[in-house]
Design brief:
This protein is of the alpha+beta class. Helices cover 56% and strands 19% of the residues. Strand 6 and strand 7 form a beta hairpin.
Amino acid sequence: MKPAGIFKLSFRNVLRAKRRSAITTLVMAFVLGSMIVYLSLMDGFKRSMADNAVSMQMGSIQVHAPEYLETKSVYKMMRNPDGYIRAINSQGFKAVPRLFSSGLAAKEESSAGVLIEGVDASAENWAFKMPRQLMEGKWLDSADPNGVVIGKRLARSLSAGIGDEIVIVSQAADGSIANDLFRVSGILKSVNEITDRAGFIMPINTFRDLMVIPEGAHEIAVMIPAGYDLDSAVSIVKRICRGQDVRSWQLLNPALANIINIFHIVMIFLMVITFIAISIVILNAMLMAVFERIHEYGMMKALGVTPFDIFFMVVIEILVQTTAAAIIGMSLGIPLAISLQTYGIDLSVLFEGGTISGIAVNIALFSYLSAFSVLAPLAALFVFSLTAGAIPAVRAARLDAVKAIHYT
């Protein structure tokens, strides 16, 4: 039988059962469109988690003195951070210095342990998103040395609001008692678990005066440009900061890196499960179509039509419906995914924000439409539909002509 004849009969068979063909096609189209939107939303959520982890405060790369991360000792610091920072910034990266210590914060009858952090206010605002992650008040100002920004859970623990005064007590680097009175300038939204619970952030020069650390830095946080290869950036920073401990965000927070990898696997698993369910629908529809046309296939075989021709006739029926479903599904799913890149889904009615693996989660869910979000479900649709359609196609091809003609 000529290919043109096979295509003609296949199209005719699709149109003969218009309702069944329409329902099958629309179900496939709905699933394809839904999977494009779902994968785009999940990819957007995954990327926002990684972006929040990196751009909020942690940075793409961190540099510390050897053994600082293991001991968190106030004495383990880099003595010449400014030279490192200038060299790193010359590579097109953004590097900022930080100092850390622990202490006790008290307001009236409330007290809490805090992580005291000294930062370069203007540099942080240039390199990171945290200065714009304020729930109340304003970011640090070098003209206001005793103004501080605190985490939202710490503010709740101390019952502290904007303008309230908090006493800090700690041990300075020279062994003396470090204590001073600070005023709350700003309260942060969720940043990460530690900052939310114990973050007490002040200008770096105020920190130096309080803790008697006239020079040096415990940490240099580095932000790399979007799309820049992380491993290459780490190699560059290691070359600049020889002898220091240089780590990427994936090593600093391996739990989050694992969550993101697992998230991708779960996305694929759910997509496969969904298309397996759809393949059952397709299999049922095509088996019904084959059973309805058993007499017709018997007559065709008696007239000399080969089993391969009948097999391809059924497969082409599936291919026609799948192609129509692909066009409809992409026409619905892609525009919706693109609109969700801009407008997102507001989740503030469900929760006020929080953290996963210590990293802030956005209360608005935005999609990210990638080639994977479109091509993966599209390929899965064709693979699973053609696989499901092959079963009734084989049964139709193997029919005995005499038995098929007398089938009741």
